[in-house]
Amino acid sequence: MDSDITDLTDKIFEENIEWQKHKWADTQGEVVNSDDIDVVYHGEVLTDEKLYQEIFKHITQYGNTDYGKWARQTGLEHLSDFRFNRYEANTFMAEHVDHIRSLFDGEQKGIPVLSIIGLLNDDFTGGEFVLCDEVIPLKKNSLMIWPSVFLYPHKVMPIKSGTRYTFVGWAW
After folding, report:
1. Helix H segments across the chain?
2. CB of 53 closer than 8 Å to CB of 2
3. Rounded mean pLDDT for each run of 10 residues along the chain, 172 residues in total
4. Angle of CA points 43, 2, 13, to nearest 5°
5. Which tens digits make up the pLDDT trace of 122-143?
6. What residue ranges in 90-163 does DSSP mark as E strands?
7. Of 45, 83, 102, 131, which has the most beta carbons under 10 Å away?
8. Which residue from 86, 82, 93 is spatially nearest to 5, judged by alpha carbons?
9. Does domain 36-171 have CATH number 2.60.120.620?
């Protein structure tokens, strides 16, 4: 990722951001509240479109792969609003899959095809990103894109020290 992008996202490191506990819907559609990671949504901290443009550039590059060619044929042209995640010491993301049936938040509607994570800092220990039981080394400005299907379980290992900041989104 372009280093200018993480400069744009520096606002999430400010003390006055109102972080919320992570919530998600289980397979029955029930909302589950997390005691672990904190989240804040794109529109609350960032309005610059450069982040979206940078992500679409990488999705286009990903489109040159076999899976990407298939994704393009499905009409891949939308990107969800980003969610910023804050992991503090002893927090983690349990293993899960992004087999999201749909994104329905009022304005955005679609079935995610690609999952996206961007690492905004690397001054922490622990917090390794694990995809399909393989540790994927991510550094500041790293961007990871993979299919949003049940075949790609992933997790974030517990943070040992410092604070890990990422953004996540989905394309369809």
Report:
1. 3-8, 42-45, 50-62, 66-73
2. no
3. 61 72 76 82 66 71 59 66 90 88 61 87 96 96 88 97 92 80
4. 45
5. 999 999 999 999 999 999 988 8
6. 93-96, 103-104, 109-110, 114-119, 125-126, 129-131, 134-136, 143-147, 154-156, 159-161
7. 45
8. 82
9. yes
